Recover the amino acids of this structure.
């Protein structure tokens, strides 16, 4: 899952990390970024060095953390259509597809996960 495909704007990492409400979760060499859109709704992005079941377990852990400790009610993501492994993993993590959207980086699949289907 990719968040807003331009999650860091002009690669301004400092601004993203300084923005109240944005959350970065890390486990070994895997991480997930959650950009606060409005209270309870985050755009998510993950990056795994882990593979297969281990990556899925870490992704589920990151999502549980967001829903139980950070007040997330919905997490959304836009994944480039050509990134089939990320789209597959996003489904494995329980996200529902809401179709395809044209974005500044090309066509992306829109995914949403609700707290009650974690």
């Amino acid at each position: 899952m990719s968040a807003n495909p331009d999650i860091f704007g002009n690669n301004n990492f400092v601004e993203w990390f300084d923005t109240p409400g944005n959350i970065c979760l890390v486990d070994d060499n895997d991480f997930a970024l959650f950009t606060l859109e409005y209270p309870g709704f985050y755009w998510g992005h993950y990056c795994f060095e882990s593979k297969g079941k281990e990556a899925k377990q870490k992704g589920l852990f990151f999502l549980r953390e967001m829903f139980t400790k950070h007040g997330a009610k919905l997490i959304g993501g836009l994944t480039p259509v050509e990134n089939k492994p990320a789209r597959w993993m996003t489904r494995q993590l329980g996200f529902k597809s809401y179709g395809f959207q044209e974005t500044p980086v090309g066509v992306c699949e829109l995914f949403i996960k609700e707290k009650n289907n974690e």
About this structure: The radius of gyration is 13 Å. The chain has one domain: 13-117.
